[in-house]
Amino acid sequence: MKRLLVLGAGTAGTIFANRMRKHLPDRWTISVVDGDPVHVYQPGLLFLPLGAHDEHRITRPRARTLDVEWVREEVFRVDADKKQVTLLDDTVLSYDVLVIASGARPRPDLVRGLVGEDWHRDAFDFFTLGGAQALRHAIARFHAGRFVVQIVEPPVKAPFAALELCFLADELFRKRGTRKDIEITLTTAYPATFEWPLAAQTFGRLLEARDIHVQTSVFTKEIDRDARVIRTIEGRELPYDLLVAIPPHSGAAFIERSGIGDDLAFVPTDPKTLGAKHLHEVFVLGDATDLDVPKVGSVAHYQAELLVENLVRHLHKKPLLGSYEGHASYFVETGGGKALLVDYDHDHEPHVGYFPTGVGPIPMLQESRLAHYGKRAFRFLYWSGLLPGRPFPVGAQPLGKPSVPIF
Q1: Which CATH superfamily includes the segment(s) 2-104+251-315?
Q2: Is the pTM of this model over 0.90?
Q3: Residue 127 and residue 80: Cα distance in Å, rounded?
Q4: In the prediction, which pLDDT does 321 show?
Q5: Residue 119's pLDDT is what?
Q6: For 108-248, which CATH class?
């Protein structure tokens, strides 16, 4: 028997494995390696700091999300020359084809002064379940002062989430009647709130209308937790009372140990075929790649669909399709029961029109209640359709590519 081995059972690895199972020849088996027993619906973490208590709705036992063999252990090292993976318990797994879908991990430890014994006292993250829960308690007690959301340094997961947190915090504080006593500021190392000008202008207007301050190109030198200031490399000091830091992210530790990644442990990846550069019989998915695309669930979804087709072609010794163009979709919550759908790729500004194309009814790059309902409904679709690898009944082609917006 031949083995297809998948490292990582997050969104990318799970979608790919469940879909690929239906296309593997009989002489092949598929195994997924992941030591975490719980699958987390990561977009749901955004709502926990704002008062949601639905942790049970955004988590599932890993065994319920995979339709293939699950190896419950952490990866220690990959030996691409020998086509072997060593696990933390010293088990060695051989493979014929390897797919690395190990995601990205937040690295607050890379930010001077951010973490320590008093981590989650006045500075928080929300890309982990524990971080989001701790921030929920802090926001519940916060009634006045400077609320700062900081994108410290790219690459980060879901940079749109910083915008959403600002919008939703503004809504929460207004409902409490404390907004007049709270200053909300978004600071970012990026030169704008979004890489494309039209979307940046749209978000800029929305932020200004809510009196949310924005400071761009802020390059952090250190966080002084005692003084509660962000110090920049230019010598500025930005004070805060409650800080939500989105730290830089890196790839999995085993990638660094294996010597197969870049300086941040992301795997160099062909941007069109998703084959690992310089590695034989290895492919890469989702946040584990070094590609200049957002590290969000929609990218993992689109890449997984392409890789299923490319793996089938690879196993039949056919040329790979070079068709991935950095397509990403995202619902951005803007508060007040509205959201904004952003859909774009490397070569196109976010699309202006309606989803599904030619049919509607959800407007793109424009606030709407339908977009809000779409985002809220997607949690059900994620568990029941997307993650199991089932085809979606609705599609669109706003950029000439199939599009199912998620998160």
Answers
A1: FAD/NAD(P)-binding domain (3.50.50.60)
A2: yes
A3: 31
A4: 86
A5: 87
A6: alpha beta
